[in-house]
Amino acid sequence: MEKRQDWALGTGGSGFSHVKEAAIPKGCHIEVPAAGARSLCDLAPCRPDSVSARNGASMTRKKLWGGRFAEEEDPLFAAFNDSLPFDREMIDADVQGSIAWSRALLHAGVITGREQQRLASALRKVLRQHREDPHRISESGAEDVHTYVEASLRKRVGRLALKLHTGRSRNDQVATDLRLHLKRKCADFEKALNQLLSTIAGLAERHGAAVLPGYTHLQGAQPVLLAHYLLSYGEMFLRDRERLRQLVERMDVCPLGSGALAGTAYRVDRKALALDLGFRTASANSMDAVSDRDFVLDLLCFASILMMHMSRLSEDLILYSSSEFGFVRMSDRVASGSSLMPQKKNPDALELIRGKAGRVYGHLVAMLTVLKGLPMTYNKDLQEDKEGLFDAIRTAMSCLRVLDLVLGTVEFRPDRMRASAAEGYLGATDLADYLVARKVPFREAHGIAGRIVRRAIDLGLMLEDLPLEEYRRISPLFRRDLYACLRLESVVARRSVTGGTSAGQVRGALRRYRKRIRS
After folding, report:
1. Could you give the percent of the chain with pLDDT greater than 90?
2. pLDDT value at residue 208
């Protein structure tokens, strides 16, 4: 066996240590430290079986924690352990957090003003380089986005890069990056939700007078205005937006400066740091700060409930677009055909939204399961907080945009909806109310109305077509004016209480709805 000398970061990641000599298998090539090397971290052994070598990467595989170890990780474990394939999308947040941390170190007296300027300038260049060539990061062979940024920084400023991690742990760094990243995603969600809310308002305004059957148990129940139906989903999506804003407020807390779990030993002004990063405040407890993933659950809960609401609306429209209902026609832009049956027009966009709801639910359950048995504080299990979360965000966001496209292109068929409402005996409750107005107890009136419906069905007639003598045979209280109360417009107009489906109530609700969208 030959011998080598290995240089690496110290165990805390904040300094250097000259590690003991380690045995090197024969045939393994070791780089000889070049004269004038800028930093100890520029000197790392090159191993033929490293992940970077395997992938043909340009960046030498370096760890931020290697001083404690005499052997290198197995390539299989390296691939299993690495998070770069999914956490690389947090590079903007990582650079933003690192620049703010450099300013905190400046104010704490750890680095000079010139050093801070060099670090900040180099970090911005790293980010700019990434935006110009996004594939560079995936080819780097880095363990994660944080390693990539630090290694890229080290190439630009040499030994100075090693000072940036002073007093900072990967634990509080990751927690901060994730919150910063999610705050941006939440802003995107709110924008997409507002667009959907506005589309619903436009539909409700254009179809203010249209009547359709309302259902319970998927059985015709009572007629309602189409605008009232549309605004019912508007209310759901407004609550989703409220949940989104609430979770952003809870998430708006900065963990940076909590260190690994006990807080940093350097005189960092954490409140100023939090404000510098755009957070409302700094976290109150360092142990909670590095292990908390409630905000991930909050976002997954929001996404799951949002998907549930989108799935319900999708299910309605799938049914309403069928030939059996025929209430809507889907645009060719959001439908597909059959490879066998030429007549088919399938509502695939809506079916995919309905199906993807389960996918998002799965990510919520998975994260709850990850967290339920974790001891304080940070555990590597928490690396599982990102893949499902990021997929849930992408899925819910794409569904939001597709649903808005569907609603923006759908064609409602008021005549078909009205005909269905007229054929379904939906005025039966108003028959009972007619008798109640004549001092008949409601339970008794309900029974009389039910007998009239049964008689109409036996004769194959609608309630409006049933002769008056048939009504009077069951109850002498009926007069010819009962037919006026059975008209769809009359049935709808009588529901004039707050939140009801009368035209006046719906117009007021639409005005308030538009105002709430803008709030």
Report:
1. 83
2. 86
For the packed helices 91-107 and 170-206, what is the interaxial angle rounded to 10 degrees? 130
The greatest distance separating any two alpha carbons of the chain, rounded to the nearest whole angstrom, comes to 111
> Could you confirm whether 217 is annotated as catalytic?
yes
What six digits make up the tokens of 198? 């506005």
Q: 58, 121, 322, 338: which is the annotated catalytic residue?
A: 338
Give the residue among 68, 71, 46 at the shortest CA–CA distance from 59. 46
Spatial separation of the C-alpha atoms in residues 155 and 362, rounded to whole Å = 41
pLDDT computed for residue 71 by the predictor = 87
What pLDDT does residue 66 have? 65
pLDDT given at position 346: 94
State the Cα–Cα distance between residues 226 and 232, nearest whole angstrom. Answer: 10
**pLDDT at residue 61 in the model:** 53
Whether omega before 501 lies within 30 degrees of 0, making that bond cis, reads no
Tell me the torsion sign for CA atoms 511, 513, 517, 519. positive
Residues 433-474 pLDDT 10s? 999 999 999 999 999 999 999 999 999 999 999 999 999 999
Beta-bridge partners for 7:
18
Average pLDDT over residues 213-242: 97
The answer to whether 241 touches 193, Cβ cutoff 8 Å, is yes
Token pair 């919150």 is found at: 179
Q: Which candidate, 304, 309, 402, places its Cα nearest to that of 347? A: 402
- Give me the pLDDT at residue 235, please: 98
Could you give the count of Cα atoms lying within 13 Å of 194 in the half-sphere of its Cβ?
12
d(CA 9, CA 66): 6
Asked if 272 and 107 count as a contact pair (C-beta separation under 8 A), the reply is yes
Q: What band does 52 get if pLDDT is binned at 50, 70 and 90?
A: very low
Neighbours of 401 (CB within 10 A): 13
Considering 135, 217, 323, 519, which one is annotated as catalytic?
217
Q: With a cut of 80, say whether residue 163 has pLDDT above it.
A: yes
Residue 239 tokens read as 């609550």
Average per-residue pLDDT for the chain = 89
**Which structure tokens are listed for 207?**
């179809």
CA distance 79 to 406: 41
User: Angle CA(159)–CA(162)–CA(168) in degrees, nearest 5?
Assistant: 165
**Closest C-alpha among 129, 160, 134 to residue 40:** 160
Give the three-class secondary structure for 339. Answer: coil
Is residue 63 within 8 A of residue 143, CB to CB? The reply is: yes
Q: Is 338 one of the catalytic residues?
A: yes
